[in-house]
Amino acid sequence: MAPEAGTAETAPSEPQARHVVYCGVCTLPPEYCEFGGTAKKCAEWLEKNHPDMHEKLYSEEAVAATLSTLSVDAQKRAAKDAQKKEAKAAAAEAKAAETKAQAQVFIKRVERNKRKYVTAVSGLEAHGMDLKKVAKEWGKKFATGSSVTKTASGGEEVVVQGDNSDEIFDWVVDVAGVPEANVECVEDKKKKGT
Questions:
Q1: Integer angstrom CA distances of residue 189 from 42, 76, 116
Q2: Residue 30 pLDDT > 80, yes or no?
Q3: How confident is the model at residue 194 (pLDDT cuts 50, 70, 90)?
Q4: Parallel, antiparallel or unpaired: strands 117-122 and 156-161
Q5: What is the mean pLDDT of residues 140-158?
């Protein structure tokens, strides 16, 4: 039957999708940022990008209302836990920066046959580079074959055909931003009789 012209149809409407905001620092919804280790950075990000939500979550009234529901012991524990999490996150960040600053990149020129060379580069992954993308870029840039291979020690290195060690050194320093002191060029020769 068709609905009559005078009555409104009261069919249930479709549920609407919700728009959820995710934190740009910890990737959690802002309501849960306190459970991550970067609460201060998350609050700064939220204040910059979503001031209305920041006001709702971090205003004096909201914080007072949240703390009033906790007992005194729970408040002390929450403050202590927050300090521990912040200290742990800061220590991890400092350790990562120190590791990156000390990581060495080795550029080896290896002789294959008489006057043929390959250039092997290891240590790039410590500086946050995707080795497959780097190998592809170098293959295009130097118009040679390049690939990611496993080393005997279990790590990975990028192998580029030809003697491109100088150009790779310049690329690693200029484009990748690795300090010049952390890049070392090594010449490897195959022993005769093998």
A1: 52, 64, 11
A2: yes
A3: very low
A4: antiparallel
A5: 88
pLDDT for residue 15: 83
**Whole-structure pTM value:** 0.53
Length of the chain: 194
Which segment of 13-22, 69-78, 106-115, 173-182 scores lowest on mean pLDDT? 69-78
Count CB-CB contacts under 10 A for residue 187: 12
- In whole angstroms, give the CA distance from residue 193 to residue 191: 6
DSSP string, the chain: -PPPTTSPP-PPPPPPPP-----TTT-S-GGGGGGSS-HHHHHHHHHHH-HHHHHHHHSHHHHHHHHHTS-HHHHHHHHHHHHHHHHHHHHHHHHHHHHHHH--EEEEEEE-STT-EEEEEE--GGGT--HHHHHHHHHHHHTS-EEEEE-TTS-EEEEEESS-HHHHHHHHHHTS---GGGEEEEEE-PPTT-
CB atoms within 10 A of CB 120: 19
Is the Cβ–Cβ distance between 151 and 157 less than 8 Å? yes
Tokens of 126: 């410590």
